[in-house]
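Quick illustration, no need to memorize.
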Amino acid sequence: MKRIIIICLLASLASCAVHTARITEALDPLTGVTVTRSQVPLIFYRDNSGVAAHARSLVHMGPLEVNEMGEYHYYLWLGIWNTLQEAAPGTSRDGFDSIVIYADGEPLPLDIKGWSAEAIGASGPTYIRPVSSSTDAYYEVTVDHLRLIAAATSIRIHTTGNRSHSYELWNEQKSAKASLLAFLKHSVY
């Protein structure tokens, strides 16, 4: 009987370790909010081969939970960059003031909350930038939005404005999807 109890305990501990390894939770030392995020963001791309061979625009997308003394807010972080040097800084922001995420064809229109972590109450970056020249963008979402994205087999980001573009999900990204599911499991009580 002792062996069975020990085995069950070890299995429980192992499942907890796997769950927490997919998310990060940190207290912001300056603002006092707790920021929870997934470890592995989803990656989207747009082929720019008309500009140069192997040229791509990329978007990394990850969920965030900001807990301010028991008041929870949810966001999507986007790390926007491309493989070419832009002529003018800030052109990577074009069209990202509002976006539409299509999760299995279901449109989720989102407006920008801000271009820095300060817009969501954090004092510094919430995700590690994919490259130093990338642009951060934050969009407020609901847990239901995040559930819809996590359950979708087809996800696409569409920018708006004069230069609207569509970004497709890069391959399967099993690790990123598992990280998103772990985030949801942690964030929803």
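Confidence is low (pLDDT under 50) at residues 7-19.
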